[in-house]
Protein backbone atom coordinates (compact mmCIF):
# COMPACT_ATOMS: atom_id res chain seq x y z
CA UNK A 1 0.00 0.00 0.00
CA UNK A 2 1.19 3.47 -0.84
CA UNK A 3 1.16 5.79 2.15
CA UNK A 4 0.74 9.56 1.71
CA UNK A 5 4.08 11.33 2.00
CA UNK A 6 5.26 14.91 1.76
CA UNK A 7 4.62 16.47 -1.59
CA UNK A 8 7.60 16.97 -3.79
CA UNK A 9 5.89 17.73 -7.10
CA UNK A 10 2.41 18.57 -8.31
CA UNK A 11 -0.28 20.60 -6.65
CA UNK A 12 -1.92 18.18 -4.28
CA UNK A 13 -1.17 15.22 -2.09
CA UNK A 14 -1.58 11.85 -3.79
CA UNK A 15 -3.94 9.40 -2.18
CA UNK A 16 -3.52 5.66 -2.08
CA UNK A 17 -5.86 3.31 -3.92
CA UNK A 18 -7.78 6.22 -5.41
CA UNK A 19 -9.87 5.12 -8.41
CA UNK A 20 -8.93 6.79 -11.66
CA UNK A 21 -11.68 9.33 -12.32
CA UNK A 22 -11.79 8.74 -16.06
CA UNK A 23 -11.81 4.98 -15.52
CA UNK A 24 -14.53 5.34 -12.90
CA UNK A 25 -16.74 7.22 -15.34
CA UNK A 26 -16.11 4.67 -18.07
CA UNK A 27 -16.73 1.84 -15.65
CA UNK A 28 -19.93 3.34 -14.33
CA UNK A 29 -21.69 4.50 -17.46
CA UNK A 30 -21.70 1.54 -19.85
CA UNK A 31 -22.71 -0.76 -16.98
CA UNK A 32 -25.69 1.35 -15.99
CA UNK A 33 -28.06 -1.58 -15.95
CA UNK A 34 -26.06 -3.45 -13.35
CA UNK A 35 -26.08 -0.53 -10.94
CA UNK A 36 -28.62 2.17 -11.58
CA UNK A 37 -31.61 -0.09 -12.10
CA UNK A 38 -31.14 -1.39 -8.60
CA UNK A 39 -31.62 1.81 -6.62
CA UNK A 40 -33.78 4.75 -5.71
CA UNK A 41 -32.13 7.89 -4.44
CA UNK A 42 -34.14 8.95 -1.40
CA UNK A 43 -33.28 8.31 2.23
CA UNK A 44 -36.78 6.99 2.84
CA UNK A 45 -37.05 4.95 -0.35
CA UNK A 46 -35.03 1.83 -1.05
CA UNK A 47 -36.89 -0.32 -3.53
CA UNK A 48 -35.25 -2.85 -5.83
CA UNK A 49 -37.21 -3.12 -9.03
CA UNK A 50 -36.81 -6.84 -9.69
CA UNK A 51 -39.24 -9.60 -10.54
CA UNK A 52 -39.10 -10.83 -6.95
CA UNK A 53 -40.50 -7.57 -5.62
CA UNK A 54 -44.27 -7.63 -5.10
CA UNK A 55 -46.30 -5.30 -7.28
CA UNK A 56 -47.76 -3.59 -4.22
CA UNK A 57 -45.31 -1.98 -1.81
CA UNK A 58 -46.05 0.15 1.24
CA UNK A 59 -43.26 2.48 2.37
CA UNK A 60 -43.06 4.35 5.66
CA UNK A 61 -42.46 8.08 5.47
CA UNK A 62 -42.91 10.28 8.52
CA UNK A 63 -46.17 9.43 10.25
CA UNK A 64 -47.82 7.77 7.27
CA UNK A 65 -47.42 5.07 4.66
CA UNK A 66 -47.88 5.08 0.93
CA UNK A 67 -47.72 2.78 -2.05
CA UNK A 68 -44.95 3.57 -4.54
CA UNK A 69 -45.78 0.95 -7.17
CA UNK A 70 -49.01 2.48 -8.45
CA UNK A 71 -50.78 2.93 -11.75
CA UNK A 72 -50.26 6.67 -11.39
CA UNK A 73 -46.49 6.31 -11.00
CA UNK A 74 -46.32 3.85 -13.89
CA UNK A 75 -48.31 6.19 -16.14
CA UNK A 76 -46.05 9.11 -15.23
CA UNK A 77 -42.88 7.13 -15.99
CA UNK A 78 -44.35 5.76 -19.23
CA UNK A 79 -45.39 9.19 -20.47
CA UNK A 80 -41.99 10.60 -19.47
CA UNK A 81 -40.30 7.87 -21.51
CA UNK A 82 -42.49 8.49 -24.57
CA UNK A 83 -41.87 12.23 -24.34
CA UNK A 84 -38.08 11.84 -24.16
CA UNK A 85 -38.10 9.37 -27.05
CA UNK A 86 -40.03 11.97 -29.04
CA UNK A 87 -37.37 14.59 -28.26
CA UNK A 88 -34.69 12.12 -29.39
CA UNK A 89 -36.70 11.47 -32.55
CA UNK A 90 -36.61 7.72 -31.99
CA UNK A 91 -39.40 5.15 -31.95
CA UNK A 92 -40.62 4.41 -28.42
CA UNK A 93 -41.29 0.69 -27.98
CA UNK A 94 -42.84 -0.51 -24.76
CA UNK A 95 -44.71 -3.68 -23.86
CA UNK A 96 -46.18 -3.61 -20.33
CA UNK A 97 -45.41 -6.53 -18.04
CA UNK A 98 -47.82 -8.75 -16.13
CA UNK A 99 -47.59 -6.51 -13.07
CA UNK A 100 -46.95 -2.83 -12.44
CA UNK A 101 -43.57 -3.72 -11.02
CA UNK A 102 -42.64 -5.63 -14.18
CA UNK A 103 -43.92 -2.76 -16.30
CA UNK A 104 -41.76 -0.21 -14.46
CA UNK A 105 -38.79 -2.52 -14.81
CA UNK A 106 -39.44 -2.75 -18.55
CA UNK A 107 -39.78 1.03 -18.83
CA UNK A 108 -36.38 1.44 -17.23
CA UNK A 109 -34.85 -0.94 -19.76
CA UNK A 110 -36.68 0.72 -22.66
CA UNK A 111 -35.44 4.19 -21.73
CA UNK A 112 -31.93 2.96 -21.04
CA UNK A 113 -31.63 1.45 -24.51
CA UNK A 114 -32.27 4.78 -26.25
CA UNK A 115 -29.86 6.82 -24.11
CA UNK A 116 -26.25 7.61 -24.90
CA UNK A 117 -23.71 5.38 -23.15
CA UNK A 118 -22.41 8.49 -21.36
CA UNK A 119 -25.73 9.19 -19.65
CA UNK A 120 -26.72 7.37 -16.45
CA UNK A 121 -30.27 6.54 -15.42
CA UNK A 122 -31.98 6.14 -12.05
CA UNK A 123 -35.52 5.99 -10.70
CA UNK A 124 -36.10 8.37 -7.79
CA UNK A 125 -38.95 9.58 -5.63
CA UNK A 126 -39.53 13.32 -5.98
CA UNK A 127 -42.55 15.26 -4.71
CA UNK A 128 -44.30 12.01 -3.87
CA UNK A 129 -43.92 10.57 -7.37
CA UNK A 130 -41.45 8.27 -9.11
CA UNK A 131 -39.29 10.02 -11.71
CA UNK A 132 -36.65 8.97 -14.19
CA UNK A 133 -33.45 10.87 -13.40
CA UNK A 134 -30.74 11.25 -16.02
CA UNK A 135 -27.22 11.98 -14.77
CA UNK A 136 -23.74 12.57 -16.11
CA UNK A 137 -20.31 13.04 -14.54
CA UNK A 138 -18.30 16.23 -14.81
CA UNK A 139 -14.54 16.05 -15.34
CA UNK A 140 -12.30 16.21 -12.27
CA UNK A 141 -9.16 18.33 -12.30
CA UNK A 142 -5.47 17.64 -11.78
CA UNK A 143 -5.44 17.61 -7.98
CA UNK A 144 -6.40 14.38 -6.25
CA UNK A 145 -7.87 16.35 -3.35
CA UNK A 146 -8.74 20.04 -3.46
CA UNK A 147 -7.28 21.14 -0.13
CA UNK A 148 -6.63 24.89 -0.05
CA UNK A 149 -3.74 25.57 2.40
CA UNK A 150 -3.92 28.96 4.10
CA UNK A 151 -0.62 29.06 5.97
CA UNK A 152 0.48 31.73 3.48
CA UNK A 153 -1.84 34.16 5.30
CA UNK A 154 0.63 34.18 8.20
CA UNK A 155 3.45 35.19 5.85
CA UNK A 156 1.99 38.11 3.90
CA UNK A 157 1.53 41.74 4.91
CA UNK A 158 -1.60 42.88 6.74
CA UNK A 159 -3.23 44.54 3.72
CA UNK A 160 -2.87 41.52 1.46
CA UNK A 161 -3.91 39.21 4.30
CA UNK A 162 -7.21 41.09 4.75
CA UNK A 163 -7.90 40.93 1.01
CA UNK A 164 -7.07 37.22 0.80
CA UNK A 165 -9.17 36.39 3.86
CA UNK A 166 -12.11 38.28 2.35
CA UNK A 167 -11.69 36.40 -0.92
CA UNK A 168 -11.45 32.98 0.77
CA UNK A 169 -14.40 33.73 3.05
CA UNK A 170 -16.64 34.61 0.10
CA UNK A 171 -15.29 31.62 -1.85
CA UNK A 172 -16.17 29.24 0.99
CA UNK A 173 -19.64 30.65 1.61
CA UNK A 174 -20.55 30.81 -2.08
CA UNK A 175 -19.62 27.18 -2.70
CA UNK A 176 -20.58 25.52 0.58
CA UNK A 177 -16.95 24.69 1.38
CA UNK A 178 -15.89 24.05 4.96
CA UNK A 179 -12.55 23.88 6.73
CA UNK A 180 -10.69 20.93 8.15
CA UNK A 181 -12.21 21.88 11.52
CA UNK A 182 -15.63 20.98 10.09
CA UNK A 183 -14.68 17.59 8.65
CA UNK A 184 -16.50 14.52 9.93
CA UNK A 185 -13.28 12.99 11.25
CA UNK A 186 -11.88 16.05 13.03
CA UNK A 187 -12.41 14.96 16.63
CA UNK A 188 -11.37 11.41 15.82
CA UNK A 189 -8.18 12.71 14.19
CA UNK A 190 -7.30 14.76 17.25
CA UNK A 191 -7.90 11.83 19.58
CA UNK A 192 -6.02 9.42 17.34
CA UNK A 193 -2.88 11.55 17.17
CA UNK A 194 -2.89 12.35 20.88
CA UNK A 195 -3.41 8.69 21.74
CA UNK A 196 -0.44 7.66 19.61
CA UNK A 197 1.82 10.32 21.12
CA UNK A 198 2.78 9.69 24.74
CA UNK A 199 2.68 12.89 26.79
CA UNK A 200 6.04 11.99 28.30
CA UNK A 201 7.68 11.45 24.93
CA UNK A 202 10.76 13.64 24.40
CA UNK A 203 11.23 13.05 20.67
CA UNK A 204 11.35 16.43 18.92
CA UNK A 205 8.98 15.42 16.11
CA UNK A 206 6.39 14.10 18.57
CA UNK A 207 6.61 17.28 20.65
CA UNK A 208 6.17 19.28 17.44
CA UNK A 209 3.10 17.23 16.50
CA UNK A 210 1.53 17.71 19.93
CA UNK A 211 2.04 21.46 19.69
CA UNK A 212 0.44 21.40 16.26
CA UNK A 213 -2.60 19.57 17.67
CA UNK A 214 -2.91 22.14 20.46
CA UNK A 215 -2.80 24.91 17.85
CA UNK A 216 -5.62 23.23 15.92
CA UNK A 217 -7.68 22.84 19.08
CA UNK A 218 -7.36 26.23 20.76
CA UNK A 219 -4.37 28.03 19.29
CA UNK A 220 -3.36 30.16 16.33
CA UNK A 221 -4.33 27.65 13.63
CA UNK A 222 -7.81 27.27 15.08
CA UNK A 223 -8.26 31.03 15.19
CA UNK A 224 -7.00 31.54 11.63
CA UNK A 225 -9.25 28.84 10.16
CA UNK A 226 -12.26 30.26 11.99
CA UNK A 227 -11.39 33.80 10.92
CA UNK A 228 -11.30 32.78 7.26
CA UNK A 229 -14.62 30.98 7.68
CA UNK A 230 -16.40 33.87 9.38
CA UNK A 231 -14.62 37.15 8.57
CA UNK A 232 -14.61 39.42 5.52
CA UNK A 233 -12.87 42.80 5.51
CA UNK A 234 -13.97 43.95 2.04
CA UNK A 235 -17.42 44.17 0.51
CA UNK A 236 -15.94 45.03 -2.89
CA UNK A 237 -13.20 42.45 -3.28
CA UNK A 238 -12.71 43.18 -6.98
CA UNK A 239 -11.82 46.82 -6.27
CA UNK A 240 -9.57 45.85 -3.36
CA UNK A 241 -7.63 43.48 -5.63
CA UNK A 242 -7.22 46.12 -8.35
CA UNK A 243 -6.11 48.77 -5.85
CA UNK A 244 -3.46 46.55 -4.23
CA UNK A 245 0.14 47.14 -5.38
CA UNK A 246 2.08 43.84 -5.43
CA UNK A 247 5.63 44.00 -4.10
CA UNK A 248 6.85 40.70 -5.55
CA UNK A 249 6.28 38.35 -8.47
CA UNK A 250 4.53 35.89 -6.14
CA UNK A 251 2.10 38.57 -4.93
CA UNK A 252 1.34 39.48 -8.56
CA UNK A 253 0.53 35.84 -9.32
CA UNK A 254 -1.71 35.64 -6.25
CA UNK A 255 -3.61 38.82 -7.13
CA UNK A 256 -4.06 37.68 -10.74
CA UNK A 257 -5.31 34.28 -9.58
CA UNK A 258 -7.88 35.85 -7.25
CA UNK A 259 -9.05 38.17 -10.03
CA UNK A 260 -9.39 35.15 -12.31
CA UNK A 261 -11.40 33.44 -9.56
CA UNK A 262 -14.03 36.14 -9.09
CA UNK A 263 -16.65 34.03 -10.88
CA UNK A 264 -16.37 31.47 -8.07
CA UNK A 265 -17.47 34.03 -5.47
CA UNK A 266 -20.98 34.25 -6.90
CA UNK A 267 -21.83 31.06 -8.81
CA UNK A 268 -25.31 30.22 -10.05
CA UNK A 269 -24.85 26.78 -8.53
CA UNK A 270 -22.28 26.12 -5.75
CA UNK A 271 -19.78 23.33 -6.28
CA UNK A 272 -21.26 21.34 -3.38
CA UNK A 273 -24.65 21.32 -5.13
CA UNK A 274 -23.11 18.98 -7.69
CA UNK A 275 -22.72 16.34 -4.97
CA UNK A 276 -24.92 13.50 -6.20
CA UNK A 277 -24.53 9.79 -5.47
CA UNK A 278 -25.64 7.75 -8.50
CA UNK A 279 -25.34 4.52 -6.50
CA UNK A 280 -27.09 5.60 -3.32
CA UNK A 281 -27.84 3.02 -0.64
CA UNK A 282 -29.98 3.84 2.37
CA UNK A 283 -27.77 2.04 4.89
CA UNK A 284 -24.41 1.24 3.26
CA UNK A 285 -21.69 -0.57 5.15
CA UNK A 286 -19.34 2.30 4.31
CA UNK A 287 -20.49 5.65 2.98
CA UNK A 288 -18.94 7.10 -0.19
CA UNK A 289 -16.38 9.89 0.05
CA UNK A 290 -18.56 12.96 -0.41
CA UNK A 291 -17.41 16.17 -2.09
CA UNK A 292 -17.09 18.09 1.19
CA UNK A 293 -14.33 15.66 2.25
CA UNK A 294 -12.47 16.14 -1.04
CA UNK A 295 -12.74 19.93 -1.20
CA UNK A 296 -11.94 21.98 1.91
CA UNK A 297 -9.75 24.63 3.51
CA UNK A 298 -6.72 23.36 5.45
CA UNK A 299 -3.85 25.03 7.26
CA UNK A 300 -1.11 23.01 5.59
CA UNK A 301 -1.45 20.16 3.13
CA UNK A 302 1.33 18.10 4.67
CA UNK A 303 1.13 18.50 8.44
CA UNK A 304 0.21 15.74 10.89
CA UNK A 305 -3.50 16.63 10.91
CA UNK A 306 -3.97 16.77 7.14
CA UNK A 307 -1.91 13.61 6.65
CA UNK A 308 -4.09 11.78 9.17
CA UNK A 309 -7.25 13.01 7.44
CA UNK A 310 -5.93 11.65 4.15
CA UNK A 311 -5.22 8.32 5.83
CA UNK A 312 -8.87 8.18 6.90
CA UNK A 313 -10.00 9.00 3.36
CA UNK A 314 -7.65 6.41 1.86
CA UNK A 315 -9.21 3.81 4.12
CA UNK A 316 -12.66 4.68 2.79
CA UNK A 317 -11.45 4.68 -0.82
CA UNK A 318 -10.37 1.08 -0.45
CA UNK A 319 -13.83 0.03 0.73
CA UNK A 320 -16.12 2.47 -1.07
CA UNK A 321 -16.03 5.06 -3.85
CA UNK A 322 -15.75 8.81 -4.29
CA UNK A 323 -18.41 11.30 -5.31
CA UNK A 324 -17.57 13.21 -8.48
CA UNK A 325 -19.62 16.29 -9.48
CA UNK A 326 -22.71 15.27 -11.42
CA UNK A 327 -25.41 17.12 -13.33
CA UNK A 328 -28.89 15.60 -13.23
CA UNK A 329 -32.23 16.06 -14.98
CA UNK A 330 -35.63 14.74 -13.89
CA UNK A 331 -37.90 13.66 -16.72
CA UNK A 332 -41.61 14.44 -16.87
CA UNK A 333 -44.28 14.02 -19.54
CA UNK A 334 -43.73 17.73 -20.29
CA UNK A 335 -39.94 17.68 -20.64
CA UNK A 336 -38.99 20.46 -23.07
CA UNK A 337 -35.41 19.63 -24.06
CA UNK A 338 -32.81 16.89 -24.22
CA UNK A 339 -30.46 16.37 -21.31
CA UNK A 340 -27.05 17.97 -21.62
CA UNK A 341 -24.45 19.63 -19.42
CA UNK A 342 -25.01 23.28 -20.27
CA UNK A 343 -22.72 24.76 -17.62
CA UNK A 344 -19.28 23.29 -16.99
CA UNK A 345 -18.86 25.12 -13.69
CA UNK A 346 -17.09 22.18 -11.96
CA UNK A 347 -14.57 21.96 -14.81
CA UNK A 348 -13.79 25.69 -14.54
CA UNK A 349 -13.72 25.44 -10.74
CA UNK A 350 -11.14 22.65 -10.78
CA UNK A 351 -9.03 24.22 -13.51
CA UNK A 352 -8.78 27.48 -11.59
CA UNK A 353 -8.25 25.69 -8.26
CA UNK A 354 -5.31 23.72 -9.70
CA UNK A 355 -3.58 27.02 -10.42
CA UNK A 356 -4.61 28.77 -7.19
CA UNK A 357 -3.57 25.92 -4.89
CA UNK A 358 -0.19 25.71 -6.59
CA UNK A 359 0.37 29.40 -5.88
CA UNK A 360 -0.72 29.54 -2.25
CA UNK A 361 1.14 26.38 -1.23
CA UNK A 362 4.39 27.69 -2.72
CA UNK A 363 4.73 31.02 -0.94
CA UNK A 364 7.66 33.15 -2.08
CA UNK A 365 8.76 36.07 0.07
Map the helices and strands.
Layout: H1 21-28, H2 32-35, E1 58-61, E2 64-67, H3 71-88, H4 100-114, E3 120-126, E4 129-137, E5 146-149, H5 158-175, H6 186-196, H7 204-217, H8 220-230, H9 237-243, H10 249-260, H11 291-294, E6 295-298, H12 304-319, E7 326-330, H13 345-360
Parallel strand pairs: 5-6
Antiparallel strand pairs: 1-2, 3-4, 4-7
Helix pairs in contact: 3-4, 5-8, 6-12, 7-8, 10-13
Description of the molecule:
- The protein has helices at 21-28, 32-35, 71-88, 100-114, 158-175, 186-196, 204-217, 220-230, 237-243, 249-260, 291-294, 304-319, 345-360, and strands at residues 58-61, 64-67, 120-126, 129-137, 146-149, 295-298, 326-330.
- The protein is mostly helical.
- The protein folds into two domains: 58-135, no CATH class; 144-322 and 342-362, no CATH class.
- It is elongated, with a radius of gyration of 24 Å.
- The two termini are 37 Å apart.
- The relative contact order is 0.18.
- Mean pLDDT is 83; it is low at 1-58.
Residue stretches low in confidence (pLDDT < 50, at least 5 long) are 1-58
Give the helix proportion (percent range).
40-55%
Report the span from N to C terminus: 37 Å
The number of distinct β-strands equals: 7
Strand content: 5-15%
The secondary-structure class comes to mainly alpha
Provide the residue-averaged pLDDT: 83
Largest sheet: 3 strands, antiparallel
Give the overall form.
elongated
Encode the helix/strand succession as letters: HHEEHHEEEHHHHHHHEHEH
Identify the strand order in the major beta sheet: 3-4-7
Number of helices: 13
Radius of gyration, in Å, reads: 24 Å
Give the number of domains: 2
Amino acid sequence: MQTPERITVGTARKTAHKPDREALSLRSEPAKKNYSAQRCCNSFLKTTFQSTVPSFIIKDYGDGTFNIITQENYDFLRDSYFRYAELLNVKADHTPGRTLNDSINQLFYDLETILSDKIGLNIEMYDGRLHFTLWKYHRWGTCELYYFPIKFLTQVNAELRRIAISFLNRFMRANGIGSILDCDEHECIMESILWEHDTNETDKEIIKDRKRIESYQTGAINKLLKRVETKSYHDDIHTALHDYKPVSAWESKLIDAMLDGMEFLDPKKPIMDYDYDPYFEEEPDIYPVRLHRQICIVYEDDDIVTRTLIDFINSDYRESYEIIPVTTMKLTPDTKSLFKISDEYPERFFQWSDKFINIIRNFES
